[in-house]
Amino acid sequence: MTEPILLTDALRRRLTGRTAVYTAPEELGRAAIRYFALATGNGDPLHLDPAYARAHGHPDVVAPPTLVCETNQYAGLPPDADGYAGHTWGVDVPGTRAVRGGNAYTFHRPVRPDDRITATWTLTSVTERTTGGGLPMLVVRSHCAYTSGGKLLAENEETMLYIALTAAPPATPAPATPAPAPAASGPPATPPPTTSGPPATPPPTTSGPPATPPPTTSGPPATPLPPTSGPPATPTPPAAAAAVTPEPAPPSGEAR
User: Fold this and answer.
1) Is 151 helix (H, G, I), strand (E, B) or coil?
2) What is the DSSP string of 103-139?
3) CA atoms within 13 A on the CB side of 59
4) Which of the 8 DSSP states describes residue 204?
5) C-alpha torsion 126→127→132→134, nearest 10
6) How far apart are the first and last CA of the chain?
7) Cys staple from 144: which of 152, 156, 170, 208, with CB 3.0 to 4.6 Å?
8) pTM of the entire predicted model
9) pLDDT for residue 136 is more than 70
10) What percent of the chain has pLDDT over 70?
């Protein structure tokens, strides 16, 4: 389970079980009902015309439903940092922004001019959750009962959210992983010259035929040597010239 980040033990103790009660100093009155109706653009004659309200079964005009929830009109609280003079729990969580999560109202009977309203707030729960974007969020839920003369007029279930501006680090950070030693396993960026494998250029003494065969290798030379077998290209002249054959002697008595 993830440790809470915003909901510290001190904050939990300060908020758990808190209540606040505000009672108006006087009855609501017709003027407050009329002003609120006109300010909110609500022209229903039930809020403005006593005769019309009586004709519809009410003893007098009735207040617009949400007027009963405006406790700042009689709570007597000073404005907070945002200028709001109504009820809050004074939750101050650094590094968060407050967002109204919603209100759910239940109305039990109309509020009349002669009602003197008491609002009783109870803080019902404080929990921590995480938003869809991974930000810690404090969820504060409250219940308010509005009564007059001990009779329940309305109820209000309110939710306030306090969302962290940035994701906070975990409560207990994991230990840092030591950096690997220089001699750690794995191929170096540039292999050393003594590593196994063929060198980039084979040494001259490696096996295999050289690029140019040496002159003493086997095979016929380009020009045959003189002492080799077979007739020479030009016959050798005889050692002595042939003797001259003498002409035959003429027959006797015949002159040359």
Assistant:
1) strand
2) EEEEE-S---TT---EEEEEEEEEEEEE-TTS-EEEE
3) 7
4) T
5) 110
6) 154
7) 156
8) 0.61
9) yes
10) 64
